[in-house]
Amino acid sequence: MNIKIPRTVITTVLLLFCSGIAQAQQKQITIDEAVEIATKNYPTLKIAQFNVEKEKALKTTAWDFGTTQIFTSADEIGNNNTEEIYTTIGFGQNNIDVFSVSSKNKLANENIKLAETQVELSILEIKRKVQMAWSKAYTKRRIYQAYAKIDSVFSGLNKAIDLRYETKAISKLEYNAMANQGKLISLQKERAYTNYQMALHVLNQYLQSDDLYDVASLNLDNIEKAFLISNKDLKKHPIFSYWKNREAVTKAKYKVANAQFLPKLSAQYRFQKIGNQAGFNGYQVGVEIPLIFNKTKGAAKASKMKINIVEQENKVNQIEFENTYNNLLLQHNQLQKNWRYYKHDALPLAIEQRNGAILSYKEGAMDYVAFLQTTKAAIQLEIDTWQMLHAYLNSTIQLVYFLTSKS
Questions:
Q1: 288: burial class by Cβ within 10 Å (0-12, 13-18, 19+)?
Q2: Among the listed ranges 69-83, 128-142, 290-304, which one has the minimum average pLDDT value?
Q3: Sequence-ordered list of residues with C-beta below 8 angstroms from that of 32, at least 6 positions apart, any chain
Q4: Mean pLDDT estimate for the chain
Q5: Judging by beta carbons within 10 Å of its beta carbon (0-12, 13-18, 19+), is residue 133 exposed, middle or buried?
Q6: Degrees (nearest 5) of the Cα angle 299, 300, 306?
């Protein structure tokens, strides 16, 4: 006897089987644990840290001793001159830049501060992205679980519906309507599972670990507590230090450019002999002064203009930053009200409607049309709840980012 199993049943079984294997292989991780792992492993942060080391290494270039010259020479040769002057070996040091050391040191220090602030901003940015990836994976899983739960209900009803149809207790129209709704729910569950797995892939991308992680199962109150805001002063954000440091770097570059007007030193020392007599020495100390300043003057003027440009850019950045924050705050307040409604009213109502409709249909107190309409509305209300949670968490994460104090 050959038994033909519907394709949708096979797909559902395989999906649940693969899901079970994946769940068994993946470790569950809280949002704080995800942030901690990402801020240790993600390459962007390592690049920022390497940049600090690079700037520290470049600080040694502030001391410019120029170039070393080793030479030999002869003077007063010819015409039977018996007192030729021979330099057997000489050493010279040219372009010794001692007068710009202070300004170059200042520039190096400002570059180090700027790089260190960039590390702090990189940590905040990775933290924000990981939190958003975790919250998306969490809400996608709740959506998948909602579809999986109602799918299991329709799977349980299939046997009863088949029996009712065979005994002619229900019409073919009701049978087809219930069967089609069951198939639609199954497809929606598969799509929700795919979205859930895609969200997990994004989260694991930031963790850079050999282990595969899944989001931990937390109640809604604990999730909201993960985003408590303690700071209320926007100007304590590290981005303001970054802009200040960037301006300091441009000012330091201007001083370095002006230092090019200052003279450079040169020195030579020679071991000589005159005729056949050795033991003579010679030395030379000089100052190199640029007589034509066009190139140096142009570079200094451009550095001065760069200060003005950066100052104005910082003003624009601050205006945009504060404006974005103000809009975000308004949006967050509205989303918070919406989320409280969905959390305390809509979600319990959706669960109550779904469970009540199932019980009523099983007991025959509700016809299939009312059952389908009620379950569809309940499912959509539950999905809307998790989508609202996702929007609310994203808004909260953004707000936490804006109100982070410089460490």
A1: middle
A2: 69-83
A3: 226
A4: 85
A5: buried
A6: 90
Q: How confident is the model at residue 391 (pLDDT cuts 50, 70, 90)?
A: very high
- Strand order across the beta sheet in which 85-96 lies: 67-75, 85-96, 264-274, 277-288
Which pair of structure tokens corresponds to residue 212?
């595969």
The pLDDT tens digits for 31-73 are: 999 999 999 989 999 999 999 999 999 998 888 888 888 988 8
Greater model confidence, 68 or 192: 192
**Residues in Cβ contact with 75 at an 8 Å cutoff, skipping those fewer than 6 apart:** 84, 85, 86, 87
What is d(CA 53, CA 46) in angstroms, rounded to the nearest whole number? Answer: 11
The three-state DSSP-derived secondary structure of the chain is: CCCCCCHHHHHHHHHHHHHHHHHHHCEEECHHHHHHHHHHHCHHHHHHHHHHHHHHHHHHHHCECCEEEEEEEEECCCCCCCCCEEEEEEEEEEEEECCCHHHHHHHHHHHHHHHHHHHHHHHHHHHHHHHHHHHHHHHHHHHHHHHHHHHHHHHHHHHHHHHHHHCCCCCHHHHHHHHHHHHHHHHHHHHHHHHHHHHHHHHHHHHCCCCCEEECCCCHHHHHHCCCCCCCCHHHCHHHHHHHHHHHHHHHHHHHHHHCCCCEEEEEEEEEEECCEEEEEEEEEEEECCCCCHHHHHHHHHHHHHHHHHHHHHHHHHHHHHHHHHHHHHHHHHHHHHHHHHHHHHHHHHHHHHHHHHHHHHCCCCCHHHHHHHHHHHHHHHHHHHHHHHHHHHHHHHHHHHCCCCC
Provide the CATH number for the domain formed by 15-402 in this structure. 1.20.1600.10
Residue 11 reports pLDDT greater than 50 = no
Rounded CA gap, 343 and 142, in Å? Answer: 13
Contact criterion met (CB below 8 Å) for 331 and 278: no
For 205-240, the pLDDT digits (tens) are 999 888 899 999 887 777 777 676 666 788 889 999
